[in-house]
Amino acid sequence: xxxxxxxxxxxxxxxxxxxxxxxxxxxxxxxxxxxxxxxxxxxxxxxxxxxxxxxxxxxxxxxxxxxxxxxxxxxxxxxxxxxxxxxxxxxxxxxxxxxxxxxxxxxxxxxxxxxxxxxxxxxxxxxxxxxxxxxxxxxxxxxxxxxxxxxxxxxxxxxxxxxxxxxxxxxxxxxxxxxxxxxxxxxxxxxxxxxxxxxxxxxxxxxxxxxxxxxxxxxxxxxxxxxxxxxxxxxxxxxxxxxxxxxxxxxxxxxxxxxxxxxxxxxxxxxxxxxxx
Length: 277
Ligand SMILES: [Zn+2]
Description:
By secondary structure, this protein is α/β, with parallel strands linked by helices.
């Protein structure tokens, strides 16, 4: 048995995710799914977290902060941490230039700073993708940590720059930076299995929703048994896990994890501050 940390994360995409992934500028139906997340789903999630008395980390696009300030202020006033998720929720690999990516990141910082009064220390990239410039921009703009890549499962690690991935040459991982990474996983994300999108090529069969949360429970139990000091980073979206009756399944999962010995629920910025000190 080992000491474990749980980092509950909520990617508060709201409407922004529909505007880029699905080009739904003219679809009020798709917009409304994001509005639900902002105005209903987030409230339900906050009620679960309040009942369980656990902290969490919310990655908030500037677009959400500027569109739904009351919903984001509710997250803040409940004591949860707010971190950067870009402004427009554009996939970093799709910017036409480094300058465009930098401008979006800076706009995200300005939006969150004006709402929270604090500068975010962490970044989660939209779609968990980096461009060739992302890591350099994070360093330039003073970010201390990221939660976007998948080089480990439960152990934080430092991101590397100047890597080389020529298909005809051995992979060169590059040199270590001071940007800490809290790895994510598509298997600990509610989007792939629980968000139905008409016609999406990644759409799988409809899951047994309760079993889906039980799979997360089994993953946590494995980590707790096998990885001393492991960090269980779970990614959810208010517009997905906020759908009935999933808040109840989340509450049951939190109760289960909290019932284990030597388990602490923390925000990622507090863990990063400890590791980097
Ligand atoms: Zn997102």
